Amino acid sequence: MRPVLILSLIVLCVGLSPSSTAQTSTAPYPNRPIRMIAPSSAGGPVDVLARVVGQGLAEALGQQIVIDNRPGAAGLIGTELVAKAAPDGYTLLFGFSGPLAIVPNFNDVMPYDVLRDFAPVSLVASAPYVLLVHPGVAAKSVAELVALARAHPGKLNYASGGTGSGIHMSGELFNLAAGVRIVHVPYKGAGPGMAALMAGEVDMMFNGVAPALPHVRSGRLRGLAVSSAKRSALAPELPTIAESGLQFNTSGWYGLLAPRGTPQPVIAKLHSETTRTLNLPLVKEQLGKLAVEGIGSTPEQFSAVMREELAQWAQVIKAADLKNK
């Protein structure tokens, strides 16, 4: 009887095992708090946007989303953390163009592969830049600025928040598109760069709509154009740079990503709830106050944007001979 008893117990255990495993594997996602990595300092644009989107997404998913700020190395530290996280949907990246499209083109050795190590969920927002000049600069349009720069090559300069930042690369893209040589002057952040521009230490700068408009409307700076393909609803009086005849279109963008290998049902749920969140009136209002536009996309569209941006900035960096400088 003893062998029969042992065999019966084995059969019983085997019979129970799939049931308990299935119960675990089919537990609804999410069933615990989610960590969203913002690879920037608290209070910056990436952090603020992550909190707006995270709050709306938390309500949609029915679970708390904890924003975890991991600044450093131009966003690489926080981005790498997500690339190496468990692919279970409980560690997400609120990524942006710097560490996902620009910085990888500067570094020969990267701690992650943008196209291999992430599962894109959705683009979240896009924010154009404003081309700003000091009022003392004798240019009231993009065409006049280009003419001035061509007449005095190397004499004009522009500020940025640091080498490799979006506003730095916008300046280099402008140089290439216009065929001019305006000298880059990096500062330790966009704020110090703006202060230098208002003080007349530099002639020009690209910066976000939200920080730029108050100074434009006060007369401390002159806004010439926006960098995006279409005019900004917050400043419709400003033309696009492309309207002046230049091949120019760039904006800062933000998106939600998970580690590679995250189950497709999890990605699908995150995608559907993210795009639904972006269409909520309150979220739209909050994004509008931050001068950004919600732009939900499919994972495939987001992946295509990253590929295009990586290629574009690789060309700009090579043409401007910026690498290893």
Please give a structural write-up:
The protein has 325 residues and is of the alpha/beta class. It has two domains: 163 residues, Bordetella uptake gene, domain 1 (D-Maltodextrin-Binding Protein, domain 2); 117 residues, 3-Layer(aba) Sandwich (D-Maltodextrin-Binding Protein, domain 2). It has eleven helices and ten strands. Strands 1, 2, 3, 4, 5, 6, 7, 8, 9 and 10 form a ten-stranded mixed beta sheet that branches. β1, α2 and β2 form a beta-alpha-beta unit. The N terminus is likely disordered.
Task: Give the tags.
325 residues; alpha/beta; D-Maltodextrin-Binding Protein, domain 2; 10 strands; 44% helix; disordered N terminus
User: What's the shape?
Assistant: globular
- Sequence stretches where pLDDT stays below 50 over 5 or more residues: 1-25
The amount of helix comes to 40-55%
Total count of helical runs of at least 4 residues: 11
Second CATH tier, the architecture of the largest domain: 3-Layer(aba) Sandwich
Assign the CATH superfamily of the largest domain. Bordetella uptake gene, domain 1
Kindly report the average pLDDT value: 90
- What class do helices, strands and sheet pairing give? alpha/beta
Question: Which CATH class of the largest domain is shown?
Answer: Alpha Beta
Q: What is the CATH third-level topology name of the largest domain?
A: D-Maltodextrin-Binding Protein, domain 2
Q: Nearest-angstrom radius of gyration?
A: 24 Å
How many β-strands, per DSSP? 10
User: Could you tell me the strand content as a percent range?
Assistant: 15-25%
* Quaternary structure: single chain
Element string (H = helix, E = strand): HEHEHEHEHEHEHEHEEHHEH
- Describe the sheet with the most strands: 10 strands, mixed
* N-to-C CA distance: 81 Å
Return the domain count.
2
